[in-house]
Design a protein that fits this description.
It is a single chain. By secondary structure, this protein is mostly helical. The chain has a single domain, classed as Arc Repressor Mutant, subunit A, CATH 1.10.10.10. Helices cover about 50% and strands about 10% of the residues. The protein contains five helices and two strands. The chain has helices spanning about 5-15, 15-30, 35-40, 45-60, 75-90, and strands at about 60-65, 70-75. The radius of gyration is 18 Å and the shape is elongated.
Length: about 110
């Protein structure tokens, strides 16, 4: 994943409604959700939802598929996983990210 893709993805997710939409689509799994279901479950007006879905699609975080008369939106898990991998690639300088347990009796630890 390129740095610009990371910036675009994080920018798209740095808005509360878009983050809620993305999380709902991740939870929905591969079946995805229609805009109507998203709008109702997240209490977002359809026009605002359309704008936010467009931004998430532009960042390659969601995909859109037409099924008959319905549009189905899904999280793009490959992109999400690549983003997470990029963010954690050099995490903790190759060491375990689990913090060491505090020492007994040490008030500053």
């Amino acid at each position: 994943m390129q740095e610009q893709d990371v910036v675009t993805s994080l920018s798209a997710l740095a808005q509360p409604v878009r983050l809620r939409i993305f999380r709902a689509l991740v939870v929905a799994g591969p079946e995805g959700l229609t805009p109507g279901v998203l709008a109702q479950s997240l209490d977002v007006p359809a026009t605002a939802l359309s704008f936010h879905l467009k931004e998430l699609a532009h960042a390659n975080l969601v995909s859109q598929e037409r099924q008959g008369r319905n549009l189905i939106y899904r999280a793009v898990y490959e992109h999400m996983n690549a983003l997470l991998s990029y963010l954690t690639e050099h995490c903790c300088q190759g060491q375990s990210c689990t913090p060491a347990p505090a020492k007994q009796g040490c008030s500053s630890c």
